[in-house]
Amino acid sequence: MNFVEELKWRGMVHTMMPGTEELLEKEMVTAYVGIDPTADSLHIGHLCGIMMLRHFQRCGHKPLALIGGATGMIGDPSGKSQERNLLNEETLRHNVACIKEQLSRFLDFDSDAENKAELVNNYDWMKDFTFLDFAREIGKHITVNYMMAKDSVQKRLNGEARDGLSFTEFTYQLLQGYDFLYLNQNKNCKLQMGGSDQWGNITTGTELIRRTTGGEAYALTCPLITKADGGKFGKTESGNVWLSREYTSPYKFFQFWLNVSDADAERYIKIFTSLPKEEIDALIAEHQVDPGQRILQKRLAKEVTIMVHSEEDYNAAVEASGILFGKATKDALLKLDEATLLDVFAGVPQFEVAKEEINAGIKAVDLFTEKANIFPSKGEMRKLTQGGGVSLNKEKLSAFDQEITAADLLDEKYLLVQKGKKNYFLIIAK
Which pLDDT belongs to residue 288? Predict the structure, then answer.
């Protein structure tokens, strides 16, 4: 496959240095994408860069994932209004280990293939580089005028940042430029890729290589991903959508993709999956015939959830979705772990009840009217129960005064009450 053509039809090329395409057609190329280890998990904002590396490897080239163990200690001014917090060495080591594990789901690090992926950490070559050596060997090649002309620097200096631009941040582009020079000399890396906000830093690297060794160096960036309405991609009310299940459960992750707009689904399925063009074109055509079926969103959510988590997690997420929106059984409810249960019912009214009262046994009518305000009166509850309209843990209540005990609790803590078809309530025993 032709890498540039592959990226172009997927809408993943923003800017490309002249000669890049010719180089990629001529030989197997080594390229890198830098990843900031500011957390111990990647989030979906990183996914476009990771997918570039994934497509790069599938097209027969060699990807390097560079973890910024050194630059992560400084912080990049690009697109930021504030200087970021600096991390200590122990935190960085932990973050790097976690990120490598996540990247191995996208890239082949372990085969004997000539183009197997490698993980590199710029801390390894920066830790013994003294300030004086860096100033003499690297700093002399790039002028302050050149560095000042960069958009990321100009924006900070022109008042977009409250606190201006620190010297630490100003040097960031030189450090990133040195990464490219080091990899060019030691790994024969000729291409750096990243988001369009990285163009200034990347071209500092190509300039540094040109001025120091005269080596071949190229740049390619992808667009910054936004939503069709102009909103920030990957942000929800609760913050970032993370790849780690510790921060974003597979169910919530699946729901994020399932709930994107039609216009976004059509773009995202090209960017965030490895599905071929013919299949994606067919899915788009099928979706347009009946948008209400949400064919694009369902396939997008399936592909990305399996890629980031697993098929088992995808199936569990689909089943969990069915509990709220479909005719799920008590068995499906019992399969949910506590985190997913709380995610599924995050938006429903919740009531806290003393666990002792449930342990002692309590009539449903007393629990649902006096302890939890689910029904305004006992008469209304009796009437709806007799008509088969009240369920406890996805099973119809046999009688309005049915006794509820600790044996009914889900995860020894929760009761799910359903009133009619669509009204859910969660009782939490504490």
Answer: 96
Q: Global pTM?
A: 0.84
Question: Which positions ≥6 away from 105 have C-beta within 8 Å?
Answer: 307, 308
Helix, strand, or coil here: 146?
helix
**Which amino acid appears at position 213 of this protein?**
T
d(CA 87, CA 70): 10
Is there a contact between 267 and 360 (Cβ–Cβ < 8 Å)? Answer: no
CA–CA distance from 407 to each of 232, 344, 362, 365, 403 (Å)?
45, 22, 12, 18, 11
**In this structure, is the dihedral angle defined by the CA atoms of residues 363, 365, 366 and 368, taken in order, positive or negative?**
positive
Q: Which helix (H) or strand (E) holds 62?
A: strand 62-67
| pLDDT number for residue 58 | 96
Residues 241, 257: Cα–Cα separation, whole Å: 10
The alpha carbon of 346 is separated from its chain's Cα centroid by a whole number of angstroms, namely: 20
pLDDT in tens, 189-210: 999 999 998 998 899 999 999 9
Reported as a single tens digit per residue, the pLDDT across 95-145 is 988 999 999 999 999 999 999 999 999 989 998 999 999 998 998 888 888
Enumerate the active-site residues: 38, 43, 46, 80, 84, 176, 197, 232, 235-236
Phi and psi based region of residue 360 (left: phi greater than 0; alpha: psi -120 to 50; beta: remaining): alpha
- Close Cβ partners of 305 (under 8 Å, ≥ 6 residues apart): 250, 253, 254, 257, 313, 314, 317
